[in-house]
Design a protein that fits this description.
alpha/beta, 8-stranded mixed β-sheet, 6-stranded parallel β-sheet, 2 domains, about 375 residues, Rossmann fold, Dihydrodipicolinate Reductase, domain 2
């Protein structure tokens, strides 16, 4: 890379993009070159805040700024696959992909394979892995402080009323969004396997209870782990009137670890070292996105400069998206699903050309 600087263009200027922009400008070795959105006024807002070029067409952005070597894809979830394939194959740029990286395991495999063929990198965003509480529990597990895991429980109780889904046509659809598990719960599904190890089987039920949408806003599941542990998952966006918690707890042979707060940001119980609870808790008031994006960008820079490998691998990404799809597959067949042999959900990420056309950009427009 030129001068070892990670020069970044962002596609999609929704609310989360602001965290990407601020993280980039605060990271030594990274440079925000340009931002792009079909609604150019959104791009111009970030242009004014972060002194970047603004575009409404990402083809123009990349053609006019050949020094951009990395593109952050922060578009609707259902467009990640299409945008990623085009940027990797046509422009041969590294890509950073917001959650969920892709909607289907087959898409993960295809895009990573294409990236390998042309020699570019894919950086998947799972920022809650960087929360201090999560890092402390991971360290404790690795050191044997907690001993063997016996059970794990995820609880996400958030509020997304009808007005949230009415903000844009892509929201609340299987083709572009996914429901509470895909949009809001993906980080906690990722942490299930990051903290607990490989999940072997799942049994899941989903319902739509709090809004008029086609996707689920409530899900409950039981899980088994390769290490013998069992788990439960409860995710809902039908809580009212506010967000209450996003937590994960581990019952282990030597004690209990419980991470809670609004977005797995508080170490609430850690029996091996109770004094660590205050030290490894963070204030995420008014910010369910957390503070991890800055750490992700530092690790992207470190990877591109040869300091150390980016920690989220292809296998890592694939297993999380495969687990996500397993929950949907279980609900679809009304039975237990073997995670390792599970494929794509029949519903999640199903192509809707009419809806996708709203978010596509033609090169000559």
């Amino acid at each position: 890379m030129t001068n070892n600087i990670v020069k970044i263009g962002i596609i999609g200027c929704g609310r989360i993009s602001g965290h990407h922009c601020s993280s980039i400008v605060e990271t030594k070795g990274a440079e925000l070159v340009a931002v792009c959105d079909l609604d150019v006024e959104r791009a111009e807002d970030y242009q004014n805040l972060f002194d970047a070029k603004a575009y409404s067409n990402y083809h123009h952005m990349l053609e006019q700024n050949p020094d951009i070597n990395t593109v952050a894809i922060v578009t609707p979830s259902g467009m990640h696959y299409e945008h990623a394939l085009e940027i990797v194959t046509k422009y041969k740029k590294n890509i950073i992909v917001e959650k969920p990286t892709f909607l289907k395991p087959s898409q993960v495999s295809e895009v990573f394979e294409k990236a390998s063929e042309v020699g570019v990198e894919i950086f998947s965003v799972f920022q809650n892995r960087y929360n201090l509480a999560v890092q402390r529990v991971l360290k404790g597990l690795a050191a044997g402080e907690l001993g063997k895991i016996r059970s794990i429980a995820v609880r996400v109780r958030w509020c997304r009323p009808q007005r949230y889904y009415d903000l844009a046509p892509w929201r609340g659809t299987f083709s572009m969004d996914g429901g509470c598990m895909t949009n809001q719960g993906i980080h906690h599904i990722d942490l299930l396997r990051k903290l607990g190890g490989k999940v072997t089987s799942v049994c899941c039920v989903t319902k739509t209870l709090g809004a008029e949408i086609e996707v689920e806003d409530t899900a409950a599941a039981t899980l088994t782990f390769k290490n013998g542990a069992i788990g439960t998952l409860e995710i809902t966006t039908a809580a009212r009137p506010i967000d209450y918690e996003a937590s994960i707890s581990l019952v282990c042979e030597n004690g209990l670890a419980q991470i809670g707060g609004i977005a797995v940001n508080e170490l609430q119980v850690y029996t091996p070292e109770p004094a660590d609870c205050e030290k490894f808790s963070e204030d995420f008031s008014g910010n369910v996105y957390g503070l991890g994006h800055g750490k992700i960008y530092q690790e992207i820079v470190d990877h591109c400069q040869g300091v150390k490998d980016f920690p989220v691998t292809y296998e890592d990404t694939l297993e999380t998206i495969q687990l996500l799809n397993s929950f949907y597959l279980s609900d679809e067949c009304k039975n237990w699903i073997d995670v390792e042999s599970a494929g794509d959900s029949k519903r999640l990420g199903i192509l809707d050309e009419e809806l996708a056309d709203l978010y596509r950009t033609e090169p000559n427009n």
